[in-house]
Amino acid sequence: MPDHADLLNEAREAMLDTAALQLRLFHEWKQGRAAPSERATAPAPPPPAAAAAIPDLVFDLARLSLQSYQQWLKITSKHLDGIVGQLRGATAAHTAEAPLLPRIVLEVSGKPGEAVTTVPFRVANPFREPIDVSFGSPGFRRIGDAGESAEPFYAAIEYLRAADPPPAPLRPGENARLAPAEQVTLQARIPLSGQFQSGQQYLGEAYVLSKGRASGIVRIKVAVL
C-alpha cells in the first residue's frame, strides 16, 4: 500500500514552494527587478496616483494568496490525514481478520473413482435479517513429506443440505438463503476422480461467504486409498 503520509507532505511542500515563488515574483515586481523581456513587453506605466497604490495592492493580493494556502493546508491536514488513517485501519483490520475466521476441518477417505461424503457440519445465520450463504470451490493440493504441491486442482464438489425432502445440492458459488438465527446442516461430497491418485493425501480450503465477505473456512483433507 502506498505511503499516503509522504504523498501529503510532498503536496504541502509543493504548495508552499508555489506560494513562495508567487511572493518572490510580487516582491521583484515591486522592486522593479523584472526580467528585461518582461519589461519590454510590459504596458505603459499607470498614472502616479495609481502607481502609488499598486505596491499595497500587490502585497494585499500576496497576503490573501498565502492565507488561502494556509487554510487549504489546515483542511487537508484535518480531513485527509483522518481519511488516510481510516483506510489504514480498515486495511489492517482486513489483513488481521483472515486468521480469526472460524474454521471447520473435515477428513474423508476413499478409493479412486468413489464419491466420498464428509461428516455433517453446520452453518448459522447470527444476524437479525436473512442472509445468503455460499461456498467457494476448494483448490486441492497434494500433501506429503515434501510438503504441498504447487498448483491446486479443483474437483466437482457439492454441498448437500439435510432436509426432508433434501433440496438440490449446492455447487460452489450458489446461494442458500438462511432466515434470522437459522442453522443449516451440510455435508460436502467429493468425487475422487481426475487428479486424485491412490496412496496420496490432499488438502483443500474453501471460503464460506455471507453478506459479500468471507465468514468462515472449510478445510477438507482427503486420503485416497
Question: What's the helix and strand layout?
Answer:
Elements: H1 4-31, H2 36-40, H3 48-97, E1 103-110, E2 115-117, E3 121-124, E4 131-135, E5 139-143, E6 153-154, E7 158-161, E8 176-178, E9 183-191, E10 201-210, E11 213-224
Parallel strand pairs: 1-11
Antiparallel strand pairs: 2-9, 3-9, 4-8, 4-10, 5-6, 5-10, 7-9, 10-11
Helix pairs in contact: 1-3
Give the structure's gist in a few sentences:
By secondary structure, the protein is of the alpha+beta class. Helices cover 37% and strands 29% of the residues. Strands 1, 4, 5, 6, 8, 10 and 11 form a seven-stranded mixed β-sheet that branches.
Strand residue content: 25-35%
What gross morphology would you assign?
Answer: elongated
The helix/strand order is HHHEEEEEEEEEEE
Provide the structure class.
alpha+beta
Query: What is the rounded distance between the termini?
Result: 46 Å
What number is the mean pLDDT? Answer: 76
